[in-house]
Design brief:
The protein is an alpha/beta fold and 106 residues long. The chain has four helices and four strands, in the order H-E-E-H-H-E-H-E. The chain has one domain (10-99): NAD(P)-binding Rossmann-like Domain (Rossmann fold, 3-Layer(aba) Sandwich). The longest helix is centred in the N-terminal third of the chain and has 21 residues, at 10-30.
């Protein structure tokens, strides 16, 4: 996620920050055509790719240490926000919507 970083994640962090800045730049450039550009920023969500890791002790510890809500997000929890962005007010552009269980708060 572009709001925080950690050791050994320079490339990953830079790519996430680039997506956010690209969102802002595209929002400015495309608003003259009535095109809105916003970004959905999910935190840790349970997926088939990471399920095995989050069942291990290191995975469970990461959840306890890094996510104030003490759980992973469920992909279904992204649906309503994605729908909102697909149908959002015409005055919303360049927005960053974070869904991360409080991960970026501390």
């Amino acid at each position: 996620m572009a709001k925080i970083t950690a050791r050994n994640l320079a490339g990953y962090s830079a790519s996430k920050a680039a997506v956010n800045m690209l969102t802002r730049a595209m929002a400015l450039e495309l608003m003259r055509y009535n095109v809105q550009v916003n970004v959905l920023m999910p935190g840790y969500f349970l997926t088939p790719f990471n399920t095995e890791f989050f069942q291990t002790e290191p995975g469970k510890n990461l959840i306890k240490k890094m996510i104030p809500m003490n759980r992973l997000g469920n992909v279904d929890e992204l649906k309503s926000t994605a729908l909102y962005l697909a149908t959002c007010p015409a005055f919303l552009t360049g927005a960053e919507i974070i869904i991360d269980g409080g991960h970026t708060i501390p």
